[in-house]
Amino acid sequence: MASQNQQGKTHLLLMLIVALAAVAGWQVFEMRNDLNVANRQVADLSGQLQDLQGQIDNIRKDVARLDKGSVQGIVREANDAILTGWETLVNTVESELRKAREDMEKNNGQTPPQAPNNPSPNTSEPALESNDGTDKT
Questions:
Q1: How far apart (Å, rounded) are the C-alpha atoms in residues 44 and 49?
Q2: What pTM does this model have?
Q3: Are the CB atoms for 51 and 43 separated by under 8 Å?
Q4: Fewest C-beta atoms under 10 Å: which of 1, 61, 62, 84?
Q5: Ramachandran region of residue 133, left (φ > 0), alpha (ψ -120 to 50) or beta?
Q6: Tens-place pLDDT, residues 38-47
Q7: What torsion do the CA atoms of 126, 130, 99, 96 make, to the nearest 10 degrees?
Q8: Which pairs from 60-68 meet CB under 8 Å and 24+ separation?
Q9: 6 vs 97, more confident
């Protein structure tokens, strides 16, 4: 009887081990299925993301095109053109003044008179220089 009891326990343990192996195998099978489903979802979402990024790029291009045609865009472009032209004019005048000063120094052998830093238009003192650059003394 002890042998049958021992044999029963062995069969019970063997059945328990087989049941645990079956449950573990089933869990592995389910995990693989879940992983495959998750991989398919990731692939689908990646495709959707690429599509959405393409749509965003197209919308940005449309916004840029509409912005150029809007009053604000036209004003911005005109303002940029005016500023660029003004900067070019100032740079040209500075360059010409520098050249003229260098030419005067070469021709006269002396430096040209410096303009006052802050001339006051309301001074009561008579000007010592005429419009043509000669002294009035």
A1: 9
A2: 0.38
A3: no
A4: 1
A5: left
A6: 999 999 999 9
A7: 90
A8: none
A9: 97
What does the domain layout of the chain look like in residue ranges?
Answer: 11-65, 70-105
Work out whether the CA dihedral 73, 75, 81, 86 comes out positive or negative: negative
Give the 3-state DSSP-derived string for 37-102, with helices as H, strands as E and coil as C. Answer: HHHHHHHHHHHHHHHHHHHHHHHHHHHHHHHHHCHHHHHHHHHHHHHHHHHHHHHHHHHHHHHHHH
Q: Which tokens sit at 95?
A: 């360059």
